[in-house]
Amino acid sequence: MTLNHAFKALSDPTRRQILDLLKNRDMTAGEIADQFQMTKPSISHHLNLLKQADLVWDERQGQHIYYSLNTTVFQDVLKWVLQFSSGKE
């Protein structure tokens, strides 16, 4: 994971909405797709970009794949952003 991948993933409003959904609980791709008016392949594309940025993890449970937040990456992004607030004023 690089910060570039994380920022690219975070730049899209749909991906940010997916992350908002996952704040509350782990969800399957189908449950996530039900929240949007777009095709399941489009949601899958967004989920793949979030996975590539390590912002979400996936775990197979039976026939379903559950997605969850990887909060470690958010901490890394926040740490990078906060370094600017401790600089010269």
Descriptive key words:
56% helix, single chain, Arc Repressor Mutant, subunit A, three-stranded antiparallel β-sheet, alpha+beta, 89 residues, 3 strands
Please state the oligomeric state of the protein chains shown: single chain
Biggest sheet, spatial arrangement of strands: 1-3-2
Q: Helix coverage percent of residues?
A: 55-70%
Q: Approximately how much beta-strand content do the residues carry?
A: 15-25%
Superfamily at the CATH H level? Winged helix-like DNA-binding domain superfamily/Winged helix DNA-binding domain
What general form does the structure show? Answer: elongated
Helix-strand pattern: HHEHHEEH
| CATH architecture field | Orthogonal Bundle
CATH fold name, please?
Arc Repressor Mutant, subunit A
Overall pLDDT confidence = 91
Structural class: alpha+beta
**The CATH C-level class name:** Mainly Alpha
* Total number of strands: 3
Our Rg estimate from Cα atoms comes to: 14 Å
Largest sheet: 3 strands, antiparallel
Helix run count: 5
Domain count: the total is 1
